[in-house]
Each structure stands twice: as C-alpha cells, then as structure tokens.
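Narrative of activities, Objective 1.

The group set out to show that a structural description can be obtained from nothing but a protein's sequence at a throughput compatible with the screening campaign. Below is one input-output pair from the validation batch, recorded exactly as produced.
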Amino acid sequence: MRNSSQVVVYGSYGYTGKLIVDLCKANNMEVVLAGRNEHSLKQQSEKTSYPYQVVESSDVAGLKKLLEPAALVIHCGGPFRYTAKTMSEACIATNTHYTDITGEYQVFESLPELDKKAKELNITIMPGTGFDVVPSDCLALHLKNRLPSATHLQLAFTMSKGGLSRGTAKSMTEGLGYGGLIRTDGKLTYCAMGSKVMEIDFGSFKSKTLCIPWGDISTAWRSTGIPNLEVYTGATESMIANAKRSNYFNWLLRMRWVKNFMLKQIDKKPAGPSDEKRESGRSFLWGKVKDANGKECVSRLETLSGYSLTAKTAVLIAQKILAGNFKAGYQTPAMAYGSDLIMEIETTKRTDL
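Output recorded for this entry:
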C-alpha cells in the first residue's frame, strides 16, 4: 500500500456524499472531491477548501488517474449496479482500497470476484459501509454468535421520520420490475413482491414489514454462512398492496423509458430529508435466527437515522483502513470488524430477547 492518507469521495456533492465530506472535514482528513458535475464540485470545493476532479463514473482511465495518489475511495455515486464495476476495477489497477455505501445486492454478489486480486495487492474491497449494511450485518453476525447452529435468518429494519434521498430513490427505481429475492439453501431464489409480510416488534412499537431484495441477502450470508435468509422493511398497508400489484406490471417497470420517466420525477424532489428530520430520526432493526432443532434467538438494534449513520460508519471504516486496521480481499463490515462495530456509534442500543 502506498504511503498516502488521501481519501477520494466520489459523488461528494450528493445528499449523503455531502454528509460524509463534512464529517471528513471535522476529522481533519485529507480529501479529494470527485464526480461528474463540475458546477456542484466547484461550489463544494469553495465551501470546504478541498480540491476536486471532474471524472465520469464510466471513464476507467480517468478514474485510475484520480485514484493514483489516493489510499482509499468512498464511492457515493450510484446507482452502484452501474458504477461499482469501473470504480472497483480502477481501485485494483491503482492499488487503492475500495469502499462504497450501496445497499444493492447485485454489487455484493459481483465484487467478491475481486477477492483474490485484492488479497494479492493487500487492499480491501468493502461495499456497504453505510446504513446498508453495517447495522444489519453486525446484527446478523451477533445472532450467529448467539446461535452457532442457525440455519435460518430473518432481518427487518424501519425508520422513524426521514425519507429517501434522491440517490436512494433512483437506486430503488432501477431495481423495479424484477420481483423479490430471498436466499434458500445458499442460493438466491425468486419471491413475488408482497408474498411475504410479517408484523415485527421493534421494541417501542410494532410494524408491518414487507420482504424485499436487499443487500443483506448477500452480505449476511457471507458474514454468517447461514444458508436461508430473508430481509424485511417497514411498510404501510398501501405499500404492501402496491407491492402485490407490481407483480402484474414487472414487464412495464423494466422498460427503460418508464424508468427514465420516474428518474426525472425524482430529480424534481428535495435532495433528501431535512436536517431536523435526519438528526432526530432513529433506525430500528430486528433479527431472528433458528436452527434445525427449532431453537430461536431474537435481537433488536436501535441506532441513528439512516443517512446520519451512513456518514458516521463510512468515515469510521475509512479511518480504520487508513490506520492499517483492515483485512485484505473482499469483506463485509462485520467480516472485517466483528459484530460490535455498530456499537462504536453513539446512542446505539442492542437488546437480546
């Protein structure tokens, strides 16, 4: 690894990228801002005094030049199913640690292909260093440690207050039209949207939840080895009804012109939740494991709101890597730092039932 402490934040001017850059600044970290939009980068550079570079996410040569002096990238420029490949390949070519804030299972399924090469280079490849998937990954491993014989794992999450950033909404839009997924006997298997619904007790409240194809169906499997996995998110009755209806329109939702129309509508919305909502909001997670004998363990986790947590954990993991505290190769957050990583974030509470 080269002797550098430079961090490239790609997509630095997006809603979550800005939070990460501001936290880097507060921690006196050496940062280069990067992305496609020169106007936004220039404005951010003037505000933060950080230098910037304009690079398209598809420009492999440009990304290599960008990363050459850097120790690590925090990749915030999604949808990651389109951008993670070129960025991670540029990291391999320049011997640069790769981290991102994706929750897209496609990325978690594809990047392990770089494991062998990353180990040879002594760099880490770690997607999912934000809300997706740090708290759920840590909760999954915690439950596995409680019940080492576990064969089935269910995870659920929900939020109080907040809402989605434009980037998150766009990533979710790109995933529409393909139905749901769970992991069965170690393999990803199709699950019709709305076919699996549970009421979950998150501690201070109960909520209906809907099974979704979230990143943990990949990461929790690698972190725990548990072969049967389902992930749920808090949902209203109307959301559940819409999910069931969507199965009849998957062919339409997959069409590029439909997605482009929806993406344009997203661009008209606010960048993300207000500061007040983000700072006062909370994230709630629940997990249950069971084994072949019917033994079960349940744990709950409460922590910061999703976007605030993403900034905290992405920067925390970057600091650990810069300090030499990393495992080479493809890693999930819990594989690299254990189930208690999330407990390093202030106000996080974990309860075993």
